[in-house]
């Protein structure tokens, strides 16, 4: 019985793996649809600078810390301006922390905080802070990771 179970498990793994490989093969419809939405000519004018450390934001209720949110960000800017963006990282981190703390105080990280509306608002406010600090070399801020840990 144990041998039969192992054989069924191996067979199921092979079938699932083959199905995944077929679905993700180069030139599949999913890949074409994803590439059709992006204009390669626009993308070659931008570069992305991942900020080194996560932003950690405390979640509070009154005087009690009830959780933490960790956010990773990247800056989308004009190609060739990566050093300028990295040089301004301390100012950017300060501005981003202000935005993230305000978002947390407004309960922006409560409930379904990853819904499209909430994330678009946060992304917009972060982008505005980046534009205030670096001007037109920045085209946007990308939220690359967000995690909430409740206590």
Most strands sheet: 4 strands, antiparallel
Proportion of residues in β-strands: 25-35%
Helix fraction by DSSP (H/I, runs of at least 4)? 40-55%
Averaged pLDDT, please?
Answer: 83
Assign an overall shape: flat
Going by helix content, strand content and strand pairing, the class is: alpha+beta
Radius of gyration: 21 Å
pLDDT < 50 stretches? 27-38
Order of helices and strands: HHHEEEHHHE
* Number of helical stretches of at least 4 residues: 6
User: How many beta strands in the DSSP annotation?
Assistant: 4
**End-to-end Cα distance:** 44 Å
How would you sum up this structure, described in words?
The structure is a single chain. Strands 1, 2, 3 and 4 form a 4-stranded antiparallel β-sheet that branches. By secondary structure, the protein is an alpha+beta fold. Strand 2 and strand 3 (64-78) form a beta hairpin. It has helices at 2-23, 29-36, 40-43, 82-87, 89-105, 116-134; strands spanning 46-50, 55-61, 64-78, 138-150. The N and C termini lie far apart (44 Å). The chain contains 6 helices and 4 strands. Helix 5 packs antiparallel against helix 6 (116-134).
């Amino acid at each position: 019985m144990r041998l039969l179970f192992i054989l069924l498990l191996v067979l199921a793994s092979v079938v699932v793996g083959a199905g995944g490989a077929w679905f993700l093969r180069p030139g599949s419809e999913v890949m074409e649809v994803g590439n059709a939405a992006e204009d390669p000519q626009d993308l070659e004018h931008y570069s992305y600078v991942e900020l080194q450390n996560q932003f950690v934001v405390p979640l509070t209720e009154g005087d009690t810390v009830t959780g933490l949110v960790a956010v990773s960000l990247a800056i989308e800017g004009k190609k060739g301006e990566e050093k300028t963006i990295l040089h301004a990282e301390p100012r950017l981190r300060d501005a981003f922390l202000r935005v993230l703390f305000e978002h947390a105080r407004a309960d922006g990280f409560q409930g379904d905080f990853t819904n499209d509306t909430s994330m678009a608002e946060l992304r917009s406010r972060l982008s505005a802070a980046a534009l205030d600090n670096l001007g037109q070399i920045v085209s946007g801020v990308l939220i690359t990771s967000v995690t909430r840990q409740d206590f």
